[in-house]
């Protein structure tokens, strides 16, 4: 369950105070638009922790009483007011919310997400879905095998069984990043060829990543060249995937390296995300 789903599920049962960072200037813990929901005995989300969050939670708990007057947005200078070393200034707003606000909040708090197509439901694919579902991505998870996807996935993960698997490339959301890591090198090659054909024709796949070694990529390059793909086509591919310098080959370690690479790719992580 993602953060917003968790919040709205609890909100259907009990009221909360929504605390939102409205503005940020200088060095601040979180950016404008960040929120947390404070319930009587728990909270969902964070506005950055530290003394700022401690004070905001205390304020929100007093506002859970419907007789309490909601304050105007509060301007907080982190250094002078709270003794924090960040040095920035934040403006924080408070809003009482209840079950009647669920539909509105479902839309207003929905973050902008980067579409990402993940081909492969194996160990690394599962580790990536677990990690990326906490990050600003809409995941399209694709595999040719039946019953490979686990139950209880977050709402932003859409699963598709596609046989043959490369047929799914044609229907990907424009602007999707693509990660290719199926159980079969033959499937990987078919998916990669389909992605390169689409990228050549439509220029709408900003990141195409292939799991594997330098040896695997050298072999794939020869096979793709035999299919008529050019050096410019092959330059679209990132292989091996993962932020350089992140060691380890366990699924979790690979997932961290790949997620870090995606988050540090300017073409994917627009300022609005």
Briefly note the structural class of the backbone.
alpha/beta
CATH domain class of the largest domain: Alpha Beta
Percent strand equals: 15-25%
Separate helix tally: 9
**Helix and strand string, N-terminal first?**
HEEEHEHEHEHEEEHEHHEH
Mean pLDDT level: 91
Based on CA atoms alone, the radius of gyration comes out at 22 Å
Largest sheet: 6 strands, parallel
Shape: elongated
Distance between the termini: 20 Å
CATH superfamily of the largest domain: NAD(P)-binding Rossmann-like Domain
Tally of DSSP β-strands: 11
CATH architectural type of the largest domain: 3-Layer(aba) Sandwich
- The helix content is 25-40%
Which strand order does the major sheet show? 8-7-6-9-10-11
| Oligomeric status | single chain
* CATH level-3 fold name of the largest domain: Rossmann fold
Instruction: Enumerate the spans where pLDDT stays under 50 for 5 or more consecutive residues.
Output: none
* Count of spatially separate domains: 2
Your description of this structure?
The chain contains 9 helices and 11 strands. With 273 residues, it is of the alpha/beta class. It folds into 2 domains: 106 residues, no CATH class; 150 residues, Rossmann fold. The chain has a 6-stranded parallel beta sheet, with helices on both faces. The two termini are 20 Å apart. The model has no long low-confidence stretch (mean pLDDT 91).
Observed structural traits:
six-stranded parallel beta sheet, 11 strands, 273 residues, 34% helix, Rossmann fold, alpha/beta
Give the SSE layout.
Layout: H1 3-11, E1 16-25, E2 35-38, E3 43-45, H2 50-63, E4 74-77, H3 78-82, E5 89-97, H4 102-108, E6 114-119, H5 123-132, E7 137-143, E8 157-161, E9 177-180, H6 185-202, E10 207-210, H7 214-226, H8 231-234, E11 237-238, H9 251-263
